[in-house]
Amino acid sequence: MTEIALVLFAVFSVLMVLGVPIGVALGFSGAAAIAMANQDAPLLGLMAIPQNFYAGIAKYPLLAIPMFVLVGSIFDRSGVAARLVNLAVAIFGRGPGVLPMVAILVAMFLGGISGSGPACAAAVGGVMVVAMRNAGYPPAFNATVIGAAAATDILIPPSVAFIIYSVLVPGASVPALFAAGIVPGVMVGLALIIPAIWLSHRHGMGRNEASLPRPPFWRSLRQAVWGIAAPILILGGMRMGWFTPTEAAVVAVYYGLFVGMVVYRTIRVRDLFGIFREAAELSAIILLVVALASIFAYALSTMSIIDPLARAISASGMNEYLVLALVVLLLVVFGMFLDGISIFLIFVPLLLPIAEVFGWDPVWFGVLLTLNVALGQFTPPLAVNLMVSCRLAGVHMQATMPWVGWFLAALFAVMAMVIAWPQLALWMPQQLGY
């Protein structure tokens, strides 16, 4: 088994270094390990590959992923973000630090609709980049704020990451994970506001903001009410038992199309093909990676590659907080280079036995892993959210480095609080009976 484990991780590492797509690297390395383990009956052993490829995506909760991805594309083009921004400015007024705060609040709100960080960065950035630049904020700072703000979407339900985690961990249901993400997600958003406002005042940014007109409140509220109603419909409908999370995604699609095509009239019939194609491509990539990762996970679990490691850590006498610190460090490092879904698919099968050894709650552990993924979404060099916001702001990612550290520190502070007080994540699911 030691030789098989070495083959599994060696093939995966070599393929990643060569630039092979993450899904192909996972599937091919898993297939190589399975073939090596079944040398006496290779054809019979290799039958596990197509079986697990199909089983990896033949799961009901995964049906929600294409729909929530489509919701993100629809609301990106519906004009909801612009109207929410106007309402937030009407409430908070003008002044240094207000527009960055508005960008974060609107991103948090959009997180209750689609749960896609890059889609949120595109929607909020499309509105806020120009507004913040005109108010005197540097483009690199604007890109950093929007990239960090969009990271809240992976925590605030609905969340594609939570759906994938629930498929990988049977003891964590989608409703429980959605409920568990609310408090930490809001805490992350509020924590990000602190450096945004402090840096604005410290560096004298946003001086032109006070001279800009303030939108009238009641008109802004009337225009934004359809966007405000979206998360209430999605999350409230799930809580009331009107529909499951998967059905909620379909309801959100129809609601978004109604708002975009009938109410705001920002989406035309000829725009639908582009929206559907964009969502289909992204959904296909996600589900293909999930299917190929199932082969990798099968190789890990069936051949008992991870169990000896978990037992060794348990027998070593290491303090659980030291183990947690090592887990966080591991995920932070890999989060700089891998997207969130890949991190879940690679590391959840590796880390779950360790979590079981220490008796960590699977829902709390899922929130902790998702916090690490959120951090990776705006940590260079990959930083998918930051990549989108930098493109919109017209700056290179290197230019954001002086600002990124402050927002990472804010997220680390929230992560430390969730580790120290697990009830921050578990209180809401307990109150709702999940």
Automatic annotation (TrEMBL):
It is found in: Cell inner membrane. The chain crosses the membrane at residues 53-75, 87-110, 116-133, 145-168, 174-199, 220-242, 248-267, 279-301, 321-351, 363-383, 403-428. It is a multi-pass membrane protein. It comes from the Bacteria. PANTHER family: SIALIC ACID TRAP TRANSPORTER PERMEASE PROTEIN SIAT, SIALIC ACID TRAP TRANSPORTER PERMEASE PROTEIN SIAT-RELATED. Part of the tripartite ATP-independent periplasmic (TRAP) transport system. Belongs to the TRAP transporter large permease family. This is TRAP transporter large permease protein. It comes from Corticibacter populi.
